[in-house]
Amino acid sequence: MRRTAYLVGGVALVTVVAGIAVAASASAGTTTYEAEAPVNRLDGGAHAVDCRRCSGGSRVTGLGPQGTLTFTGVIAERAGRARLAVTYTSPQARTAEISVNGGIGTAVRFPAGRGSSRPATARITVTLRAGDNTVSFGNPAGAAPDIDKIVLSTDGTPPAPVPSATPTLAPTLPPTVPPALPTSVPASPPSGGPTAPTASPTGPPSSPTVPGPTTPPAPTTPPAVPTTPPATPTTRPAPPTTTAPPTTPPSGNAAAEAEVVRLVNVERAKVGCAAVRSDDRLQAAARGHSADMAARDYFSHTTPEGVDFATRITDAGYPWRGAGENIAKGYRTPADVMTGWMNSAGHKANILNCGFQDLGVGVAADATGTLLWTQDFGTPR
């Protein structure tokens, strides 16, 4: 991991290029925002609790798939990058997605602290607009750390290169790295056995057939393009859990994810497939996987612990008889990532599989602002 030292006002400032600043300038010009302040928004079970060692004597807990904390009235004198010190408590390493002004959330890994009542601090860099800003904390993949306060540095020049916490969907510049080859995986239902993959003669992205949710797939180089899609169910499945139409237009992650679902249905209509429905459970699995890949810097259908996508969607509560997953990295817009998937036989096969009825989409930014995308398709039992 490369480290770069900068001199700011006579005080050395060291950053880790992966996105967490490990030392900061001792200069003045900072503003503190308490998590429990009445002006902040606490949604979905997030609430303040007493914390003797915390600033102000309280911290906000309950952050996760439903619970979010939004700091309001975060003032920046000018638009651009700013240093943000996040004081938190967590007895174990946890991830939080940090969204600025409703933008796509950046997944940040917070190291384990010294307990639930002894605060630790992580320093990140965010991109703010001049004037009022909002900064939200949550985690679609599980519990986020409890938040005590944030401290915004309002003077000096932030170090560079640094990640932005508000990557945009607008393609103003090409990705800083070429988009990684997206991969797709169709799965057999839980009762099915593994099928040995074979190498693709043309070398498209991988799409091996994998066993059910109790056994992770074996890695292959390269995996095979599927020849047989999951079977269309012969009996009518139970109605899936669907996402209710929002009362206001979505923003950030939700807007990008909804656009991917729309584009999938445009492609399916061209070949006569019924539209897939957005499913809350599949969306939770997809969002969680994108956030986990972004926070822990890997790109795979299988987590570093060996958990495959079939297990992830099962754990999210989706009872399935057929399922598939597409992932991609480095594409800046829903249209770009859909073009990448549609230009690959394995991914296109998942998107145009008329047997699939439900879809969940997740997107998250890593510490460099690179977007990671996940599509989880399913046919319910």
The biggest sheet amounts to: 5 strands, antiparallel
Helix share, percent: 10-25%
Mean pLDDT: 74
List the uncertain runs. Answer: 1-28, 156-182, 188-251
Widest beta sheet: strand line-up: 4-7-12-9-10
Helix-strand category: alpha+beta
Q: Strand-and-helix sequence, N→C?
A: EEEEEEEEEEEEEEHEHHEHHEE
Number of helices: 5
Shape: elongated
N-end to C-end Cα span: 46 Å
| Beta-strand percentage range | 25-35%
Q: How many runs of DSSP E, i.e. beta strands?
A: 18
Radius of gyration (Å): 22 Å
Q: What's this entry about, in short?
A:
The chain is 15% helix and 34% strand. The chain is of the alpha+beta class.
List the helices and strands and how they pair.
Blueprint: E1 3-8, E2 11-16, E3 30-34, E4 41-43, E5 47-50, E6 58-61, E7 68-76, E8 80-90, E9 94-100, E10 106-110, E11 115-128, E12 131-138, E13 146-153, E14 180-187, H1 252-270, E15 277-278, H2 280-296, H3 309-315, E16 320-329, H4 334-342, H5 345-351, E17 358-365, E18 371-380
Helix pairs in contact: 1-4, 2-3
General description of the model:
This protein has about 375 residues and is of the alpha+beta class. It is built from 5 helices and 18 strands. It has helices at about 250-270, 280-295, 310-315, 335-340, 345-350, and strands at about 5-10, 10-15, 30-35, 40-45, 45-50, 60, 70-75, 80-90, 95-100, 105-110, 115-130, 130-140, 145-155, 180-185, 275-280, 320-330, 360-365, 370-380. A 5-stranded antiparallel β-sheet has the order 4-7-12-9-10. A 5-stranded mixed β-sheet has the order 14-16-18-17-15, with helices on both faces. The chain has a 4-stranded antiparallel β-sheet with strand order 3-13-8-11, with no helix packed on it. The termini are far apart. The relative contact order is 0.16.
